[in-house]
Design a protein that fits this description.
Number of helices: 43
GO molecular function, one term: ubiquitin protein ligase binding
Strand order of the largest sheet: 3-4-10
Protein name: Cullin-5
Pathway: Protein modification; protein ubiquitination
Keywords: Isopeptide bond, Membrane, Phosphate transport, Transmembrane, Transmembrane helix, Transport, Ubl conjugation, Ubl conjugation pathway
Radius of gyration: 50 Å
Membrane topology: Multi-pass membrane protein
Structural class: mainly alpha
C-alpha cells in the first residue's frame, strides 16, 4: 500500500525513491431536499415580495452554492424546482389579470403583475450568478431568461394583441390632450422588448408589433388631424401647430419607444412625412415672404422641420440666394445716384445688408454653414454686378471692352477716405476707423476683380504718402498686411511695403542733407543770416520699381533757386549713393507759397506746375501774359498747361481766383494762343462770410499721378497684368503636372487666380496658345490629347439630343422659309404668267442650291458669329448650344404662322430677333453686339428702298428704250442682248469675286474678276444677238398677232393671244423745260397699253431674272435657316464656342432640301399675295422687279450683311407699281405686310426668350 506524506515532513533524502501521491479531497454528502426546503422558503418570500433580512439573503447564496457544489445533480434539480415554482407564480398572476374582461382593466392588472415579476427578475437570479449550470457561465441571465420564457408562454403570447389595443387607445387619448398613466405604456413596451422568443433578435417582436403599430397609428392620427387643422387655420398658424407636434412626438418617442436609434429614426420619418412633407409646397411658398418680413420664429420652425427632410432645404437655400441677390441689387438701384458718388454710403449699404442677413441666418437658421455659403454666393453676385455700377476695361480686340463692376474702385476710394486726412477720418475715433477697415475687408472678400481694387489702392497710397496725408503710418502697414492675408498679388504687396519703407529712408536722407549743409556753412569764412532754400525742402527719394512711374517724367521750368537746390541735392545723393540716377517727378511735387495781395497775406498749397505758372509773373506782377508766352516760359505740355491754368482761374468752391483771364468761358478747349492771364491783386479768402487777411488754401486738389501722355498705357495696364498672371499660373501648373488636359488646366488656373480675379476660359485659351507659339510651353502631349478627347466625348454624348432636336427644328425653319421667302422670289414670275407653279418650283430648287453653295457661307458666318457676343458664354458652352434650339424654335414657329396667314415675312428678321431674345433672356443687354444689330436693322430699311430705286431705274430705261418707241417690238429685240449681258456679268462677278470657301474656289483679284465676268457677259451678248434673238423673233411673229395689246389691268398673257384690239394712240411725251415737265417726260404713262409681242420678249428674259432672283435668295436667306444649326454642329464637334471653322457644305445642302420641301408643299399661298394680289405685274415690270431685288441681295451677300430678300422684292413691287399704276396697288395688303415686318422681330424675340428660359430651368 502506498503511503502519503504530510506536508510537515520536511527532511526527505534525495536518494529516497518512495513515490508521494496526494489523495483527492473527500466529497461531502448532503441532503438536497433539506437544503432546498430552506432555500425555497427564502425564494417564495421573494416572490411574495416579503421582507428578507440580509442574513437570510446571504443564507440563500450559501444554500445554492452548497447544493451545486456537493450534489452532482444539484443543478438539474434546481432548474426543475425553479421552473415549477415560476410556473405556479405566473399561473396565479394570469388568473388575477384575466379576472376582468375590460381591456383597459386587463392592461392595468397586467402592468401591476408585470412590474412585480420584472422586479423579481432583477433580484432573484443574483444568488445563481457564480454557479455553473450546464457549462453556461452567465447563470444569472439564464435564470432570468427562464422566468421571461415562462411569463411569455403563459401570459404575454395570449395577451399581446389586447395589450397593444389598449396602448393605442391611451396614446390617442394623450395626443388629444387627455391625461393618462404613462407607466402603462412604458410597461407594455418593456414587455415587448424583454419577452421576445428569439433571443438572438431580442427586438424582433418589439419591431414587428409594438413599433410597427405605433408608427401606423401615429401616421393615421396625424393624417386626419393635420387636414382638420390646415382647413381651420392658415399656413403660418399651421407652422406653430407643426412645430409643437414635432416636439411632442419627439418627447413621446423618448418615453414610449425603445432607446435604439432606429426606432427614433423611423418615428421621425413618419412624423416628418405627415406633418411636414405633405404641406411642404405650401410651406416653401411662404419662405420668401417670411424672409422679407424677417419673421425669425417661423423661419426657425421651417428650418427645424425641413432640415429633417431629404431635399426640401435646397429650395430654401435657392430662395434665400435669390432674395439676397434681388434685395441687394434693388437697394443699389434705388440709391444709385447717392451711392455711386459716395463710396462710404456704398460700403455701408453693403455692410448693412450683410449684417442683416448674417443675423437672420444666425437666428433663424442656427448659423448653418450652408446658409452662410449661400449668403456669400449672393453677396458675390451683388458686389460684382454690372447692372448698377460698371466700368469698361479695354481688351486687345479693337472696339471691344470687358464690362467690370465698379465695386473695387468704390472700395478703394472708401479705404482712402479712412486712411487719409479726410472729413470722415476726422470725425471717427481710432477704434471706429479700425472697425470700418475690418468691415471693408469683409466686403473685399466678395470682390472678384481684386487686381482692380489693388491698382486703385496703390494709387491712393501714392497720393497719401507724397502729400503726407495719411493719418497713421502703422495703420497703413496693418492694411497692407491684411491684403497679404487676403491673397492679394505678392509682387504688388511687396511694392507697397517698399513704398512705406521709402518714408524712413527719406527721413534719413533729409537729415543727411541738413547735416551736410550745416557743415558747409560752418566752414564758410563769412557768416550769413540768409536761410538756404534747401533747408525748406522735404525731399522724397522714391524707388522707381515700387512706385512704377518711370515713363511719366515731364520737364518744367521752375524758380532759379529751386533749380539750384535740386542740383545741389542731386550732387549730395550721388555722393552718398554712387552709381544711382535721380529723375525729378515734377507732377508729384508740391509746396507752399506766400501770396501777398491787397487784402492780405495767404499761404497757398500749390503743385509744381502751378508754382511754375505763377513764377512767370515774378518780374511782371502787374503785366499780362498770353497763353503762348506761358507755354514758352514753363515748357509744360499743352494739356498740362491748360489743366493748370484752369485750376488757377476757375478753382471750385472759392470766390476769388489767383489768376484772371480774358477768356469768357474758362475751359481748356477755349484757351487760344492769344488768351491773356494776369495776377489777381485783389485775391482774398472768405471764412464765415468775411474776408480774411490771413489764411491758408489748398489749390492742388487731387494729385495727378500719371501724365496725360500715358493714360492709354494705364488703361491697358489691367489687361496686361491679367494676361501675365494667367501665363504665370499656366506655367507653374504645367511645371508641376508635366501634362494636363485642357479642362483640368482651366480649372486649376481659375483656382490659383480666384483671389485676384476670375479668368474666363477665352483668356486662358488665348494665353495657352501664346505660350505654345512662343515655345515657352510644349505642345499638348498624346496622353493629354487623349484626356481632352475623352472630355469632348462626354460633352458630345450629353448634348447629342440637342443636335438631333436642332436638326429637326432647322428643317422646320427651312420648310417655313421655302413656303414663304422663296415664294417671294418667284411670285412675280408666276404672277405675270411667265412661269407655271411647277416650273417655278423646279427652277427655284436648282438656283437656290447654287446660290447657297457659291455665296451663302458669308451670311451664315455673319449670322452665327456677329449678332451676339459669344465670348460671354465661354464658360458655359451648353447654354449657348441650348440657345440655338430656342432660336430655331422661335423663328420657325413664327414663320409657319405667317405662311398660313399669307404674310411674306422676313426670315432674316426672325432669326436676328430670336437670337437677340435668347441672349437677352440669359445675359441681358450686355450679351448683344448692338452695333451689328444696328447695321443689320439699317439694312432692312435701306434694302427695300435701294431695291425699289434700282427697279425703277431699270423700268424707266425699259420704258424709254422700248415701251414708248414707235416700234417697241424691234426696239425690244435690239436691247435684249444688252439685258442678258448685264444680268450674267453681274451674276458671274458675284460668284467668282472673293471665291467660295465651300467648294474651294480661290479668291480672285478684283481686276481679274471683272475681266472674267465681262468676258462671260460678252459671250452671252453674242450668243443672244446671233442665236437667241433671230429664233425668238420668228417664234413671236408666228405665235402672237402683230396688233395685239395687253391692257395694264390684264395679268394673263394667254388671255389675249387671239384678241385683236384697236391700236391705241398716245400723245408723244415731250419736255417743256420745267421740272414738272421733266418728270412727266421721264416717268412712264400710267394708262399705256403694252404690245403683247414686246411682253413676250420680256417673258423670255424674266425666266432668266427669276433664276437670278432665286440664286440671290439662296445666297442670302438660306444662310439664315442653317446659321443656328451650323453653330450647333460647331459646338458639338469642338466642345467650345469658338466657331473657327467654315460652314460645312452638307449643312447648306440640308437647308436647301428643307426649303425645297416647304416650297413644293405651301409655296403657292405667298406666291399669290406677292405676284397677284398686291399689284398688277406684267413681264416687263416683273423683269425689272426681280433684277433690282436680285442685285441688292447679291451685293449684301458679298458684304456679309444678312438683309431680307422679302424686303427687296416687296419694295421693288411697290416702287414699280407706283410709277406704272399707282392706283393699282392694294395698299391694304401692303400695310398688312409692313405690319407683319414690324412685329416679326419682337415676336420671335419673345418666343425665343420664353423657350430659352423654359429649357434652361428644365435642363
Amino acid at each position: 500500500m502506498t503511503c502519503t506524506a504530510t506536508s510537515n515532513d520536511s527532511n526527505i533524502s534525495n536518494n529516497d525513491n518512495t513515490q508521494i501521491i496526494r489523495q483527492p479531497y473527500a466529497r461531502k454528502f448532503i441532503d438536497f431536499d433539506t437544503y432546498w426546503e430552506s432555500a425555497l422558503l427564502i425564494v417564495r418570500d421573494l416572490m411574495d415580495q416579503k421582507n428578507v433580512s440580509r442574513q437570510r439573503w446571504h443564507e440563500l447564496f450559501s444554500l445554492i452554492f452548497n447544493i451545486c457544489t456537493w450534489d452532482d445533480e444539484g443543478q438539474d434539480k434546481i432548474n426543475k424546482r425553479l421552473h415549477n415554482e415560476f410556473s405556479i407564480y405566473v399561473s396565479l398572476a394570469e388568473k388575477k389579470i384575466r379576472s376582468n374582461g375590460n381591456s383597459l382593466e386587463i392592461l392595468k392588472l397586467y402592468i401591476h403583475e408585470w412590474d412585480r415579476f420584472y422586479v423579481l427578475s432583477q433580484h432573484l437570479p443574483l444568488p445563481f450568478k457564480d454557479v455553473f449550470i450546464k457549462g453556461i457561465e452567465d447563470n444569472e441571465n439564464d435564470i432570468r431568461k427562464l422566468m421571461y420564457t415562462i411569463w411569455s408562454d403563459m401570459i404575454f403570447s395570449q395577451l399581446k394583441t389586447t395589450l397593444w389595443s389598449s396602448v393605442e387607445v391611451l396614446i390617442t387619448d394623450e395626443r388629444n390632450g387627455i391625461s393618462i398613466d404613462e407607466n402603462l405604456i412604458i410597461g407594455v413596451r418593456l414587455s415587448f422588448v424583454l419577452l421576445s422568443p428569439d433571443q438572438s433578435d431580442r427586438l424582433e417582436i418589439y419591431n414587428n408589433i409594438f413599433l410597427e403599430n405605433y408608427l401606423r397609428c401615429t401616421e393615421e392620427f396625424y393624417k386626419i388631424k393635420t387636414s382638420e387643422v390646415r382647413m381651420d387655420t392658415g399656413i403660418r398658424d399651421y407652422l406653430n401647430y407643426m412645430n409643437t407636434k414635432l416636439d411632442e412626438e419627439e418627447q413621446r418617442a423618448r418615453k414610449y419607444l425603445n432607446t435604439d436609434p432606429e426606432s427614433l429614426r423611423k418615428l421621425e420619418q413618419v412624423t416628418v412625412d405627415v406633418l411636414v412633407t405633405q404641406f411642404a409646397d405650401e410651406i416653401l411658398v411662404e419662405v420668401r415672404s417670411l424672409i422679407r418680413d424677417n419673421d425669425v420664429p417661423r423661419l426657425s420652425i421651417i428650418y427645424k422641420a425641413l432640415n429633417k427632410t431629404k431635399d426640401k432645404m435646397n429650395y430654401v437655400l435657392d430662395v434665400l440666394k435669390e432674395y439676397i441677390t434681388e434685395e441687394g441689387l434693388s437697394t443699389m438701384r434705388e440709391n444709385a445716384l447717392t451711392v455711386a458718388s459716395d463710396p462710404e454710403k456704398f460700403v455701408e449699404q453693403l455692410l448693412d445688408m450683410y449684417n442683416k442677413f448674417t443675423k437672420l441666418i444666425d437666428d433663424a437658421f442656427c448659423g448653418d454653414i450652408r446658409f452662410k455659403t449661400i449668403r456669400d454666393v449672393a453677396f458675390k453676385i451683388v458686389a460684382n454686378s454690372t447692372d448698377v455700377f460698371k466700368m469698361e476695361i479695354p481688351t486687345r480686340v479693337k472696339g471691344r471692352v470687358n464690362i467690370e463692376s465698379r465695386c473695387p474702385e468704390l472700395l478703394a476710394n472708401y479705404c482712402d477716405l479712412l486712411l487719409r486726412k479726410s472729413g470722415l477720418s476726422k470725425r471717427l475715433s481710432s477704434e471706429e476707423i479700425d472697425k470700418k477697415l475690418n468691415d471693408l475687408l469683409i466686403v473685399l472678400k466678395y470682390v472678384n476683380s481684386k487686381d482692380i481694387f489693388i491698382k486703385y489702392h496703390k494709387n491712393h497710397l501714392s497720393r497719401r504718402l507724397i502729400m503726407e496725408a495719411y493719418t497713421d503710418i502703422e495703420r497703413e502697414e496693418y492694411i497692407v498686411n491684411q491684403f497679404k492675408e487676403c491673397g492679394m498679388p505678392t509682387e504688388t504687396i511687396g511694392k507697397m511695403y517698399r513704398m512705406l519703407q521709402d518714408l524712413d529712408l527719406n527721413k534719413d536722407f533729409n537729415l543727411f542733407i541738413k547735416t551736410s549743409k550745416n557743415i558747409k556753412n560752418n566752414n564758410r569764412d563769412a557768416t550769413s543770416n540768409e536761410k538756404d532754400i534747401s533747408d525748406l525742402l522735404n525731399v522724397k527719394i522714391l524707388n522707381e520699381g515700387a512706385w512704377g512711374r518711370g515713363k511719366d517724367f515731364v520737364n518744367v521750368t521752375l524758380n532759379d533757386n529751386l533749380e539750384e537746390a535740386m542740383h545741389s541735392i542731386e550732387s549730395l545723393y550721388k555722393f552718398k549713393h554712387k552709381g544711382r540716377k535721380l529723375n525729378w517727378i515734377h507732377q508729384w511735387s508740391h509746396g507752399t507759397m506766400t501770396f501777398t495781395s491787397n487784402n492780405g497775406k495767404y499761404d497757398l498749397d500749390l503743385s509744381a506746375y502751378q508754382m511754375a505758372v505763377i513764377n512767370c509773373f515774378f518780374h511782371c506782377s502787374k503785366g499780362k501774359l498770353s497763353f503762348e508766352a506761358l507755354k514758352l516760359a514753363t515748357k509744360l505740355p499743352i494739356n498740362e498747361l491748360t489743366r493748370t491754368l484752369v485750376s488757377l482761374t476757375a478753382f471750385p468752391k472759392i470766390k476769388s481766383q489767383v489768376l484772371l483771364t480774358d477768356c469768357e468761358s474758362v475751359a481748356s478747349r477755349n484757351f487760344k494762343d492769344e488768351t491773356l492771364f494776369w495776377i489777381n491783386h485783389d485775391f482774398f479768402i472768405v471764412k464765415n462770410n468775411a474776408i480774411q487777411s490771413r489764411g491758408k488754401l489748398n489749390l492742388i486738389g487731387r494729385l495727378q499721378l500719371a501724365a496725360e501722355v500715358s493714360s492709354q498705357l494705364e488703361q491697358d495696364e489691367i489687361v496686361t497684368l491679367r494676361e501675365l498672371r494667367t501665363q504665370e499660373a499656366i506655367t507653374k501648373i504645367m511645371k508641376m503636372r508635366k501634362e494636363c488636359s485642357c479642362t483640368h488646366l482651366e480649372n486649376e488656373v481659375v483656382e490659383m487666380l480666384k483671389n485676384i480675379f476670375y479668368p474666363n476660359k477665352k483668356l486662358i485659351k488665348e494665353q495657352i496658345e501664346y505660350l505654345i507659339n512662343e515655345k515657352i510651353m510644349d505642345k499638348i502631349t498624346i496622353s493629354t490629347i487623349l484626356t481632352s478627347t475623352e472630355s469632348l466625348g462626354t460633352f458630345q454624348s450629353e448634348v447629342l439630343w440637342a443636335l438631333i432636336v436642332g436638326a429637326c427644328l432647322a428643317f422646320l425653319l427651312g420648310f417655313g422659309m421655302g413656303a414663304n421667302d422663296v415664294s417671294n422670289a418667284f411670285g412675280t414670275s408666276v404672277g405675270s404668267k411667265v412661269l407655271t407653279l411647277i416650273q417655278a418650283y423646279i427652277l427655284a430648287s436648282i438656283f437656290e442650291t447654287l446660290g447657297s453653295i457659291l455665296v451663302g457661307y458669308n451670311v451664315t458666318d455673319s449670322m452665327r458669329k456677329n449678332v451676339i457676343d459669344t465670348s460671354l458664354y465661354a464658360d458655359e458652352p451648353k447654354v449657348l448650344l441650348i440657345g440655338q434650339l430656342a432660336i430655331l424654335a422661335g423663328c420657325s414657329s413664327w414663320l409657319i404662322i405667317a405662311t398660313i396667314a399669307k404674310w411674306p415675312v422676313s426670315t432674316t428678321q426672325g432669326i436676328v430677333g430670336a437670337t437677340a431674345g435668347m441672349s437677352l433672356s440669359m445675359k441681358g443687354f450686355n450679351g448683344i453686339q448692338w452695333m451689328e444689330i444696328v447695321k443689320i436693322a439699317v439694312s432692312w430699311v435701306a434694302s427695300p428702298l435701294l431695291s425699289g430705286c434700282v427697279s425703277v431705274i431699270i423700268y424707266t430705261i425699259v420704258d424709254h428704250t422700248v415701251l414708248r418707241k414707235d416700234n417697241p417690238f424691234h426696239c425690244g429685240l435690239r436691247v435684249l442682248p444688252y439685258f442678258y449681258f448685264v444680268c450674267l456679268t453681274f451674276n458671274t462677278f458675284a460668284v467668282i469675286y472673293s471665291g467660295s470657301v465651300i467648294i474651294g474656289i480661290p479668291k480672285i483679284p478684283l481686276g481679274v474678276s471683272i475681266g472674267i465676268a465681262f468676258g462671260i457677259g460678252v459671250i452671252t451678248f453674242l450668243a443672244t444677238m446671233f442665236i437667241l434673238k433671230p429664233r425668238l423673233r420668228i417664234w413671236i411673229e408666228k405665235t402672237v398677232p402683230k396688233d395685239t395689246y395687253l391692257d395694264t389691268k390684264t395679268i394673263s398673257l394667254e388671255a389675249c393671244d387671239d384678241k385683236n384690239t384697236k391700236i391705241p394712240t398716245y400723245e408723244k411725251q415731250k419736255r417743256d423745260g420745267t421740272i414738272k415737265g421733266f418728270f412727266k417726260w421721264l416717268l412712264p404713262l400710267r394708262d399705256r397699253q403694252s404690245p403683247l409681242q414686246v411682253l413676250k420678249i420680256f417673258s423670255s428674259i424674266q425666266v432668266f431674272t427669276a433664276c437670278f432672283a432665286g440664286f440671290a435668295h439662296g445666297a442670302n436667306d438660306v444662310a439664315n435657316a442653317i446659321a443656328p444649326l451650323a453653330a450647333l454642329i460647331s459646338f458639338y464637334k469642338d466642345g467650345n464656342i469658338d466657331q473657327k471653322g467654315a460652314t460645312p457644305v452638307y449643312v447648306l445642302l440640308f437647308g436647301v432640301l428643307a426649303i425645297c420641301v416647304g416650297l413644293w408643299v405651301l409655296g403657292h399661298r405667298v406666291i399669290q399675295t406677292v405676284g397677284q394680289n398686291m399689284s398688277e405685274i406684267n413681264p416687263a415690270s416683273g423683269f425689272t422687279i426681280e433684277f433690282g431685288a436680285a442685285v441688292t441681295a447679291l451685293i449684301a451677300s458679298k458684304a456679309g450683311i444678312p438683309i431680307s430678300t422679302t424686303h427687296c422684292l416687296v419694295g421693288s413691287v411697290v416702287f414699280v407699281g407706283m410709277i406704272r399704276s399707282g392706283e393699282g396697288i392694294d395698299w391694304k395688303i401692303f400695310k398688312g405686310i409692313v405690319f407683319s415686318w414690324i412685329i416679326t422681330l419682337p415676336t420671335c424675340a419673345l418666343i425665343s426668350a420664353g423657350v430659352m428660359r423654359l429649357l434652361y430651368l428644365t435642363l
